[in-house]
Amino acid sequence: MFAVHLMAFYFAKLKEDQIKKVDRFLYHMRLSDEILLDIMARFQAEMQKGLDKDTNPTASVKMLPTFVRAIPDGSEHGEFLSLDLGGSKFRVLKVQVSEEGKRNVQMESQFYPTPNEIIRGNSSELFEYVADCLADFMKTKGLESKKLPLGLTFSFPCLQNKLEEGVLLSWTKKFKARGVQHTDVVNSLKKAIQKHKQDIDVDILALVNDTVGTMMTCAYDDPYCEVGVIIGTGTNACYMEDMSNIDLVEGDEGRMCINTEWGAFGDDGALEDIRTEFDRELDLGSLNPGKQLFEKMISGLYMGELVRLILLKMAKAGLLFGGKKSSALHTKGKIETRHVASMEKYKEGLANTREILTDLGLEPSEADCIAVQHVCTIVSFRSANLCAAALAAILTRLQENKKLERLRTTVGMDGTVYKIHPQYPKRLHKVVRRLVPNCDVRFLLSESGSTKGAAMVTAVACRLQAQRKQIDRVLALFQLTQEQLVGIQDKMRAEFEYGLKRDTHPLATVKMLPTYVYGMPDGTEKGKFLALDLGGTNFRVLLVKMRSGRRSVRMYNKIFAIPLEIMQGTGEELFDHIVQCIADFLDYMGLKGAQLPLGFTFSFPCRQKNIDKGILIEWTKGFKATDCEGEDVVDMLREAIKRRNEFDLDIVAVVNDTVGTMMTCGYENPNCEIGLIAGTGSNMCYMEDMKNIEMVDGDEGKMCINTEWGGFGDNSCIDDIRTQYDKEVDEGSLNAGKQRYEKMTSGMYLGEIVRQILIDLTKQGLLFRGQISERLRTRGIFETKFLSQIESDRLALLQVRSILQQLGLDSTCEDSIVVKEVCGAVSRRAAQLCGAGLAAIVEKRREDQGLEHLKITVGVDGTLYKLHPHFSRILKETVKELAPQCDVAFMLSEDGSGKGAALITAVAKRLQQAQEN
Ligand code: BG6
Ligand code: BG6
Ligand code: GLC
Ligand code: GLC
């Protein structure tokens, strides 16, 4: 009995002595809570540094955006392939995620070796090997005939701009293949797979880090999971960060998973005070000296080696094995992490230690075994402590982001160290809980590796890709081929001729209206004139003063509103309102009672027999006043003036806005023989040879023709390019079936087309979470100015979103991208169509004059042309392409059509006076 007690005493004493000895020797590796809290604070600062745009370039902890935005919601389903490369084992898998609700995942997998000559060879060898393994797997599983989406778990630091891309920043752990760093691994894999065209048909949709895969795997079972940690061959963590804190990715909405790459913590010297001589020695002998310094204190690839280096030093110092060393103890890599784990086993640990040391060619005493076991404990404990400190920093960040008193969260865990080391998980959990007492943390082991999660990410990507295809299908309807544009040009040209010929004119849709404007102002015009400008965005009254010979005018104008009820009331009300505005203007200018000649810009199709007669054929755009169509608008204006009985005006000319614009520009540039309006409406006028105008007698000289090309297509000749959206816009307009070309090209309708597309995409569940809001149902919300703003290149996505918000549309960032694309497609088509029309006229003019080359200037006006960031450019490009023999210059009319109308009035007045004399 006494002997037993004595033995126990002896053994306890022996153990205590050994532990003290080792503790003393490895004093520096034992980290107090105080130090851990300090490390935690340092890591918090590192995370911020990596997230900020300005400091990221020099940050050692890279905080890489992963483009994984949401954890699985259970709606994922389908069959996927998965590759898992970078951990201790390389696997190829098939993952079957079952239908909604059941949350059932089935996996079949196969491990493949990763020989050193492959992982340290060159890029093509590595990826061809991976592709070979994939091909082999598909063959064994009978998957050759299937086209499957593939997710790649690639456990190295990668820079991503999208989910299906990963530029390797640097190799870590055991890999060192040449020519891969700074290249996109997805692309390299794609290329390698190309060589297996016959047996593999896959679509690589996602690249994820193993931490991300782990988090997603665990989140599939526990929606609270928002952190993923790997303590395996390497170590790393990811977590869900608020988008508003991620400088490197546009958008502020929601969250995105950040791959911290915490293994590189300390690479800038931030951990020098806690690194030991063993850490330094280990680093020097590694594949990547100076890199991954935090990882090298923690992960499986290094833990055994650290123990070896310590044992060697202790032996050398005579503290172990009676000072003897074996050659195995001198050999790098002879002690592995699995040995450390086995030596630390609760019951068999000591016996395992003896066996392992003996295998290393050593002859350990009982005391040696106890000491070595304690060395292992210190090394693995330090590892768990360091991980805990960094993880505590992440948890604190989550808690702060959410502004919570207490955070309840789940951390998804994986990696061989965490899984096979007997004490590791318990120690880690305990320290984390001590460091962040305000967090209720659940640690969830990922049973099925990173791949299940990678499949979830792929499933989401797959769904998004399908949605993308649907969106593209809609946008494709608006993309016109060169051939289609030439077709439009030809048809427009034919319609011009139709409208000009006496026989066909009555039925022509492009009306080619004679304007009785015969020539350009010559600079001798002078006097004071009034002008009205009705039919565009604004109604104006103007006073224009011209001085002879100067080619310069002075203008005074006032904008007046025309309320909707007047635009669409009775003709009398409309003209009374106009006269009221004139009266106000005269009053305002102090011209009460002055009897001035007046030019009337009236931007609607009018049949003219004379310069001062214009019979409104029909209203277009937003006007619909009754009792005007078929009437002479000059008479209507005169009668309204009479009704008011306050002043008299001499109405000399009525002109279309295109004609006014051409004149305004022609005053400065006599080569301007075309007037174009791309505004609320769309129209063009040009100078035609009298001999070609069959409806007007005389063959000498030229006359301006108001084409009214807005009506192009009213005979269905362009129905092949009209979409369902164009038809919907037409049906909802004031003049259904009319002005079909105008409805595809002008400001008043482009926004409506956009709105119809958005409604349809929303119905298909592709936008606005499938919810059609009241606002979206409201006609006219997308005015030209909003379209122009949305499409501005200088605008960040966030601003697009805020414009949409102003419009009452509550959109996500993804929605905003789609809306911008829709606007782009619609306005681009408009500019191209308009360009095709213009090409038709310049080519006609060139051919009519029998010229090889035509040099001509187009006077342009209109809000679409002026405000839209791309319209004018695309218009010009199209004209250039379709009419290569014409040198077309564009001149923006700075002063509106009113000035031109006044000039025409001046000329007409001079002729009138000449006749009277
Ligand atoms: C696995 C993952 O479960 O964990 C791997 O599927 C990952 O991709 C690994 O790299 C980490 O552990 P280890 O110990 O294999 O590096
Ligand atoms: C203006 C003219 O400059 O341009 C108007 O003076 C014309 O009469 C207009 O209708 C066209 O642009 P919008 O975009 O106002 O219809
Ligand atoms: C290394 C890699 C990292 C990976 C980790 C765990 O640290 O750089 O990307 O997540 O190992 O495998
Ligand atoms: C409409 C009108 C036309 C006008 C154009 C531009 O198409 O019918 O006369 O020129 O809009 O304002």
TrEMBL record:
Question: Where would I find the Hexokinase N-terminal domain in this sequence?
Answer: 22-220, 471-667
Name the principal localization, coarsely classed: mitochondrion
* E.C. designation(s): 2.7.1.1
Topology relative to the lipid bilayer, per the entry, is: Peripheral membrane protein
Give the UniProt keywords, A-Z: Allosteric enzyme, ATP-binding, Glycolysis, Kinase, Nucleotide-binding, Transferase
Q: Where in the cell is it found?
A: Mitochondrion outer membrane
* Ranges of residues in domain Hexokinase C-terminal: 227-460, 673-907
Pfam families recorded: Hexokinase_1, Hexokinase_2
Enzyme class of the recorded protein, top EC level: transferase
| Keyword Transferase assigned | yes
Q: Which reaction does it catalyse?
A: D-glucose + ATP = D-glucose 6-phosphate + ADP + H(+); a D-hexose + ATP = a D-hexose 6-phosphate + ADP + H(+)
| Pathway of action | Carbohydrate metabolism; hexose metabolism; Carbohydrate degradation; glycolysis; D-glyceraldehyde 3-phosphate and glycerone phosphate from D-glucose: step 1/4
Q: Where are the transmembrane segments?
A: none
Q: Which gene encodes it?
A: HKDC1
- Source species of the chain: Erinaceus europaeus (Western European hedgehog)
Is DNA repair a UniProt keyword of this protein? no
Protein name as it appears in the record = hexokinase
> What InterPro entries does this protein's entry cite?
ATPase_NBD (IPR043129), Hexokinase (IPR001312), Hexokinase_BS (IPR019807), Hexokinase_C (IPR022673), Hexokinase_N (IPR022672)
Q: Which family does it belong to?
A: Belongs to the hexokinase family.
